[in-house]
Protein: DMT family transporter
Amino acid sequence: MNAPAAHHPIRGILYLMGALALFALLDTVSKTLASRHPVAVVVWGRYFAHFVITLLVFFPRYGTGLFKSARPGLQVMRGLTLVGVTAGVIAGFQRMPLAEVTALVFVTPFLVMILAVSFLDEKMPRWRWIPVFIGFSGVLLIARPSGNAFNIGVVFVLLGAVCYAIYQVLTRKLSAVDRSVTQLSWTALVGAAATSLLLPKYWVPGAFDLVDGLLMGSLGVLAASGHLLMIMALRAAPATTLSPFTYAQLVWATLLGWLVFGDLPDGLSLTGMGIIVASGVVVAYSERFSRKA
Structure:
């Protein structure tokens, strides 16, 4: 008989804050590299480093069983959607400030709701659609499609958010049949394999100096460390407790965007970011209470 799961909400929140800080730092390094190198090369570096770290950490323990999956086809699809997330976000970083890209990615919970209703036959009370529509109004304030501030980066980031929503839905389905470490390993394998196919087209010999090489290697370390802290957070506290705090990543992104790139969102963008966060918190708490009901 399994022991009951531990419940240490404060510890879980602290782990989560660390994970979000690492993810924001990962985005900062990605944006720095994307300003000097093609998106495809940066995405490859992120997944290749992640794959190497995954093998070093988990292969000695699990061997080839690390990749044993009940649904390998879905694992490949899930891995490709995460590559789409990374590519869309990094392409956005080339054209937009860090904080605004991060805010746009936070429309993902709204998209997950739409996909869950459409493809997983989950039931949703009508009133819960209200914060979804309000949240998308925040997106319009950031994107401003009728104004001069709009750029193609918004499209790339929103496409990445759609991929992220599909990735989360597939993760829900696969969590019932595969271990977390298997999902993590397949993500790294598919990402490294898919981007390696594109690498010869975009790689420029001698383009990386020592500093950029170290930054490229740090992508996998930051990603793996952040995911490890996220797993520790979810072991210490339920997802419904942690989810409202995930928006702290926006604070980290705003701070790092200001310190590293000198970017600060304008008034309309800050308003849009606030609307997205408020709507997302409402969705998170409504999910928490609906599960208790």
